[in-house]
Each structure stands twice: as C-alpha cells, then as structure tokens.
Amino acid sequence: MHQGIHHIGLATHDMERTLEFYENALGFEAKVCEMIHPETGGAIRHAFLDMGHGQLIAFMEPNDVAGAPADFDAGINRGLGIRGGMIHFAFWCDDEEALGRRRAELEAKGIDVTHVVDHRWCKSIYFRDPNGIQLEYCCYAQELGASHVEQRQGEAWARYRRG
Hints:
Layout: E1 7-11, H1 15-25, E2 29-36, E3 43-52, E4 55-63, H2 77-80, E5 89-92, H3 96-108, E6 117-118, E7 122-128, E8 134-140, H4 155-159
Parallel strand pairs: 1-4, 5-8
Antiparallel strand pairs: 2-3, 3-4, 6-7, 7-8
C-alpha cells in the first residue's frame, strides 16, 4: 500500500552549506548523519533531514570516491542539460496563507523566491538550494477530481504518445 516517500536522495559537494540551508533556512531537522566507506576507497558523508510526516531528504557528499567526479553538477537539471526546473522537489504547504508566510520567511533569510504562482489546482513558490536544485512549496487550491485528468483523453495529449 502506498504511504508516501520515505526519503529522496540527492548529492552535494558542500555538506556544511547544504545542512546550513536545509536546517536554518527551511527548518528541517537533521535525523541521521553517517559516514560510508566504499570498498573502492574514499568516503561519503550522508545526512538525512526530516521534511515532515516522517519523510526525509538525504544528501550524499562523495570525497575521493571512484566514479564520482569532483566536479559533477549537483543541480541535476543543468547536469542533464534540461532547461529550468524540469526536475524539482515540492514541499507541502497547508494552504495559501501558509504559503505566503513561507515565502516571507524565505525572503527574510535572503533567499530569492518567486511570487506565488497560480496553477489553478495548486499554488506554488519556487527557489533554489545551494546546489542549484529547484525547490518548491506548494498547496492545493482545489479539491482534485475527475476534471483534473480530462485532458488525458484529448487529442493534444494523444498527439505526443510514443509507440
């Protein structure tokens, strides 16, 4: 049975800067910090932070690990050559009022954050972490129902089917 996400695993080149951002700017509490020593050599610092509801976000910082280049792009989208924030992570916000408060908190901490974007069915704010990863806070603006998947039956949707 589906129960949500246990954790999302991401990479960083600077664990201190990453932890500073997630703990102090976003308020996520570190739950596990461990060292991994691959058989091939090097070391990986591995940290898990609580995103709420028992769900975690983890960061791995490879140090002299075979197969992990020192200069890989931890920003994901740039490293893959994808424009904008095609790959991003959205954190839960209860409602638009909470979203506005979160936006003000981030701005007060010097974080460049968008205005509230109205997607009709949800509302979001966007910003980036120190690794260049696009992040989002999002709240529902409507109760989801059958009308939210209608376009899947349309001609425009079908036009892009593969195979």
